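Lab notebook, bench 4. The sequencing result for the construct came back, and we need a structural model before the next group meeting so we can plan mutations. Quick request posted to the team channel:

Model the 3D structure of this chain.
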Amino acid sequence: MAMSISAGGTNEPMVEMNTTPLIDVMLVLLIMFIITLPVMNHNIRLDMPISDGGRTQPEVIKLAIESDGTMVWNGTVIESLAQLEHLFRAEAAKPNQPELHVRPDKRAKYDQVAHVLGSAQRNGMKRIGFEGQEQYLNE
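Done. Here's the predicted structure in token form:
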């Protein structure tokens, strides 16, 4: 910091702080902050769904997987994984694909559930979800 000393009429030196360098530094910092701030964009593009009025809910397929490996498709027992894959292909080919709600028993083997989910995905099912998560709350 620079100080100016005056040799005026008195023998005492006049001490004043030179604030010009401080103002220069503050202006440089202000300019740096303004430049580095991202440009604020107040426009947000939202792709909202278009309502078609009386749209109905999609069909729901309930697939239960029991603890012994038995698979139940909307109340009908499925005998084999090949039969289940055939049902998946038939439902996936529909123009308005139904939702698949899988409800595994909490004692069902993970391997069995994983095979069913993999088969559903391989055969073109797009809307897959789980039901019955409340059975795991009190574990």
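The mean pLDDT is 82.
Will bring this to the meeting.
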